[in-house]
Write a structure and sequence with these properties.
70 residues; alpha+beta; two-stranded antiparallel ribbon; 3 helices
Length: 70
């Protein structure tokens, strides 16, 4: 939420409000794995999020800005 909003402002690209990050974002922009990832992703889908940033697919916030934000 907050990290994607900040990335959206700095990249000047809008983000979807239905996007959630499925991991932690480090101070250098790396996206890290978290415990119980499968359960967290399933819960995000159940809550209606349509786009999930999976730390196995995206390693850095820069990748998210290039590939996810419009």
């Amino acid at each position: 939420g907050i990290v994607l909003a900040i990335a959206s402002v700095f990249s000047n690209k809008p983000g979807s409000p239905m996007t959630v990050v499925g991991g932690e974002v480090g101070l250098l922009g790396e996206i890290r794995m978290v415990g119980r990832l499968k359960q967290r992703l399933a819960e995000a889908k159940r809550l209606g999020y349509t786009q999930i940033i999976d730390p196995e697919k995206y390693r850095t916030l820069q990748e998210v800005v290039r590939k996810v934000l419009r």
